[in-house]
Amino acid sequence: MLHAVLMIGGSGTRFWPLSRKKTPKYLIPIVGEKSMLEQTVERIAPLVPPERILCITSKEMAPAVRRALPALPAKNVVGEPMGRDSATCVALGAVIVYSRDPEAVMLCMPGDSLVGDAGKFRAAVLAGEDIAEMNKLVTFGIRPAGPETRFGYIHRGRLIPGDEGPKVYQVNRFVEKPDLATAEHMVRSGDYYWNSGNFMWRADVILKELARHAPDLHAAMERIRPALGTRQCAAVIRKEYEGLKRISIDYAVMEKAEDVAVVEAEFDWDDVGSWTALERHCAKDAAGNAVAGQVFTLDATGCVVQTDERHLVAALGLKDVVIVHTPDATLVCPKDRANDVKKLVEELERKGLTKYS
Amino acid sequence: MLHAVLMIGGSGTRFWPLSRKKTPKYLIPIVGEKSMLEQTVERIAPLVPPERILCITSKEMAPAVRRALPALPAKNVVGEPMGRDSATCVALGAVIVYSRDPEAVMLCMPGDSLVGDAGKFRAAVLAGEDIAEMNKLVTFGIRPAGPETRFGYIHRGRLIPGDEGPKVYQVNRFVEKPDLATAEHMVRSGDYYWNSGNFMWRADVILKELARHAPDLHAAMERIRPALGTRQCAAVIRKEYEGLKRISIDYAVMEKAEDVAVVEAEFDWDDVGSWTALERHCAKDAAGNAVAGQVFTLDATGCVVQTDERHLVAALGLKDVVIVHTPDATLVCPKDRANDVKKLVEELERKGLTKYS
Question: What pLDDT does residue A281 have?
């Protein structure tokens, strides 16, 4: 049966000051009325009922995630004692899902991406499920909108023939986040996809791959497995996590595995990585400003301005500037520095202004 | 005896959102701990006691001005029923002062300028008083810091010999707000001053000049004079004001009068005309940002950032940008558009956002 494992990590500091340590990106409605996490769960709900949706997040955020997703059984929100990157998260998800359903196919996905057409997303998942049942590792490839350097890329190989629906290819290789020239080359070739960070596989298959390519990690999960559902579970997980290194699923498994497929996404996808993402998803005024809340612009173009309905933000004579107002903090920066908001928040913390971070 | 007439007008919309219709520029502490108006009164206090300080403001603002200056007798704050520009304001001040003291010398000054050295300002006033007693009209000339086009200029003539102290010259002519080329020429010549909008004269002398150059205005004041101190006073002033045209003292009298002197200011003077004025008077951080309140900057230079101590404003990667945060409204604009904040506020009103204007 199909299970979903939501990998809910990251602080989303690039969305400061709307996102904070205690209200990360996935818990806030950055685009749309609902939080990114709620949107993710709604997207898969027609395929996966709540009892088969597993959320893996940090121990600190687990209570907030449970509150955000009240339809999920509380035990389906698991808090990691510390961050050990995506391979560890996938491994923990796999051992839990496998213990519940040895025949399970797992859809692993981040909890904070944006998908344009949920129907097409589900069609891709169903196509991926067929391929996963062939014991392959499945990825979802996004046709590049440009030579983006903040994503990994997937080089596709031969077409895997199938029914009507999304095209599926064998994967030749994974490419880590490239430099601009490499990215431009890959985009021109037409044979590369952005790696969306969504994966699919049988739980038993990924556990075998982990045993082969990341034996220490697999061994730790084997020690966790008997504790699952017992009162010692959290303590055992903590003990094992303490001994593990941070390792990504791409590095631990995907780049080494032999039989990987890529489903070509027919849906729009966005990782909503920084404030400039709002331009792609929000309503714009006549001058091309993406605005939300009580915003007043005069001679401003290409700006991203966000406030609530009571506090007026007036942008005069600005070009390509991000302004985000929240009750206790306001950010102003040029659009081309939006990725450095993360750095700004780190500096804030370093200077002791933690009440705002 | 020396009297002061403070001409307290203008909404100071260029300091929006800190200044508002109900709290104009002169009532707020833009530079320093006290409001511009309080600073003005403190500056002249050693020369002019409260009972000889007359404030002329709008009818709407008179109560707030009385509250801001509790040491002044309430009758010394006069509210004009409508704005009729500086000549009308001077004329009303002159007729009131003359009715109290026919020998009075009047120092007319705006209530919202900044003076660097109050002692030197008072020295200039004392020099001006001697000249005013010679039945001359007296202006105060500021040595131009640059070819500013938003001020009128004063062309000085021969030196009027006198005691030690500020130099005093006969005035050749007044120049209205010039274009840039004319301003540059005047600044290079060294014979021109900025017109600071401070004036000094005997009350009887300015009334005679008004009778000669602005007879309608003078006649209106002659009809107001017998009503002064009576219960009909406000009604009479309203009736007369309704019939008057808007006219500035420069246009009505100064440009036409034959015997005008200029006292060369040895004090720093600033009309604090827009947010960029803060750069000249506020503390700056290491990167040259003029900041006040809970401000955090990263890679920002030449910015003017103003907030309170609780609300954080973070400026990332900005150059020469003004950011002003207040509890219900925030302004962001490039420094070179700071003068257009006035226009922004007009647009706000036009769009019905009057709760913020």
Answer: 84
Please identify which residue in the block is written with the tokens 């014979």. Answer: B191
Angle at B132 between CA B127 and CA B137, to 5 degrees: 115
* Rounded-to-integer distance, Cα B39 and Cα B2, Å: 19
Looking at the structure of chain B, the number of domains it has is 2
CA B72 remoteness from chain centre = 19
Largest alpha-carbon pair distance within chain B?
A: 64
Is residue B27 classed as helix, strand or coil in its secondary structure?
helix
CB spacing of B334 vs A318 below 8 angstroms: yes
Four-CA torsion A61, A66, A69, A75, nearest 10 degrees: 120
The token duo for A169 is 């290819």
- For residues A249 and A289, membership in a common domain is answered with no
Any idea what DSSP says for residue A250?
A: I
Q: Find which of A332, A337, A345, A354 to mutate to test the B interface (most B CBs within 10 Å of its CB).
A: A332
Q: Are B73 and B105 in contact (CB under 8 A)?
A: no
Cβ of B308 under 8 Å from any chain A Cβ?
no
The pLDDT assigned to B31 comes to: 85
DSSP annotation string for B188-241 = HHS-EEEEEEEEEEEHHHHHHHHHHH-HHHHHHHHHHGGGTTSTTHHHHHHHHH
Instruction: Report the alpha-carbon distance of residue B268 to residue B144 in Å, rounded.
Output: 10
Which pLDDT tens digit goes with each residue over B199-237? 999 999 999 999 999 999 999 999 999 999 999 999 999
**Interface contacts A/B by beta carbons within 8 Å:** 116
What is each CA distance from B20 to B329, B342, B355, in whole angstroms? 11, 11, 10
B252 touches chain A (CB under 8 A): no
Q: What is the mean pLDDT of residues A291-309?
A: 96
Please tell me the distance from the alpha carbon of residue B232 to that of residue B178, in angstroms, as a whole number: 43
Q: Are residues A240 and A308 in the same domain?
A: no
B349 shares a domain with B263: no
Give how far A36 is from chain B: nearest CA, Å.
25
DSSP B251: I
- Tell which of A227, A249, A270 closes a domain: A270
**CA pair distance A96, A79, nearest whole angstrom:** 13
Task: Report pLDDT digits (tens) over B283-320.
Answer: 899 899 999 999 999 999 999 999 999 999 999 999 99
CATH code of the domain containing A154? 3.90.550.10
